Prior knowledge:
The complex is a heterodimer of chains A (115) and B (112). By secondary structure, chain A is mostly beta strands.
Amino acid sequence: AQTVTQSQPEMSVQEAETVTLSCTYDTSENNYYLFWYKQPPSRQMILVIRQEAYKQQNATENRFSVNFQKAAKSFSLKISDSQLGDTAMYFCAFMNNNAGNMLTFGGGTRLMVKP
Amino acid sequence: NAGVTQTPKFQVLKTGQSMTLQCAQDMNHEYMSWYRQDPGMGLRLIHYSVGAGITDQGEVPNGYNVSRSTTEDFPLRLLSAAPSQTSVYFCASTGAYTDTQYFGPGTRLTVL
C-alpha cells in the first residue's frame, strides 16, 4: 500500500513571495502519477499540477512548479508570486495506474497568503 | 457537460438511519469512486468501480455499500448511520486511459 505524508500542517506567506509545500510518499511501484490538489473554502477539489513518475523533467503550470525527486520519493510544490486567491488547503496525492486510477492523499497543508 | 454531480449537498441523519448519496457523471468515464474527508484530513477511499457491475473496497469500506448498474451512476448507501460517519463525501470519476480525476462538489453529512 502507498502512503503520502505532508509534514507541514499550516504555512503562511506574504503576498507576491514564494512558498514551498513538502510531500513525501512511499511505494514499491515504478509507474505512477503524483498530483497537487487545491481545496478552497468552497471545498471543491481543484487539480493544480500533475507529474508522471517516468518523466525526469519537473512539471510547471504558470506560477506553480514541482520538485520531483524520485529516488528520495519527494514531491514538493512551489508557488511563485503568491496571490490572496492561493489561500486554501493543498493536498498531495499518489496514483498507481494499475489500481483503477484511485488516489491516495496526504493529510494536507493549510496555506494562508497574507496581504 | 455537467461533469460529476452529487445529491444532496447537505444531510443530517440520526444514528441508525439509512440513506443513499447519489453520484452521476456524464463523461462516459469507466472508473468511479467515493472518498470521505474528515475535518483537517485528506480524502480516504471508501469504494470504487472500474465499470458497470464491478465494485471493490477501498481503505475505509465498513458501513457502506455501493453498486454500479450503469456507467453513469454510482450511489453510496449508508446502512445504519453512526456518528463516526459524519464527514464530507466526494464522488469522483476518471477514464480508463486518463489520469485526471474529476470530483463532484461534495456532500456534507452529519450524524447525530
